[in-house]
Amino acid sequence: MLSDLGIQTNGQNNTIALSSASTLSTALTNNLSEVQSFFSGANSWGAQMNNWLNSTIGTGGTIPNQQATLTQESTNITTQISNLETKVSSDTAQWLSEFQAMELATSQTNQEMTYLSEQITNGTL
Fold first, then answer.
1. How far is residue 80's CA from residue 90's CA, in Å, rounded to a whole number?
2. Residues 16-39: what's their mean pLDDT?
3. Domain boundaries, the chain
4. CB of 23 within 8 A of CB of 35?
5. Secondary structure element (H or E) that encloses residue 43, with its range
6. Does residue 38 contact residue 32 with C-beta atoms inside 8 Å?
7. Which of 17, 22, 28, 114 is a good FRET partner for 62, with 20 to 30 A between their CA atoms?
8. Tell me: the pLDDT tens digits for 39-80?
9. How many whole angstroms separate alpha carbon 28 and alpha carbon 65?
10. Residue 125: pLDDT above 90?
11. DSSP for 47-81?
12. Would you say 23 and 6 are in contact if contact means Cβ atoms under 8 Å apart?
């Protein structure tokens, strides 16, 4: 373990520090081959760290996969926004056209009412 080498790790703030230089020095002086095999070899800490890094940041790792997922979600949201903007623009144009048609119909109705009122007032109707 790293602590046997005088190295302290902290998973809360992701730090690694030399906690005891004398412990490290003793381990290197008295057990150099064990220290070497701790860091190198098929089942070593170094191999495990390498495997973890590859599975985390390597091709097909969790971070690249998550990044690809987030990129796709962002693209989908951008497409949805564009579609909504197109729909709003289309609806606005349709409503404006319908409003103008209503205004024209109202104006024509008012003109007809004025004409009929004049005809009634003049006694020609």
1. 15
2. 89
3. 1-41
4. no
5. none
6. no
7. 17
8. 888 889 889 989 999 999 999 999 999 999 999 999 999 999
9. 40
10. no
11. HHHHHHHHHHHSTT-HHHHHHHHHHHHHHHHHHHH
12. yes
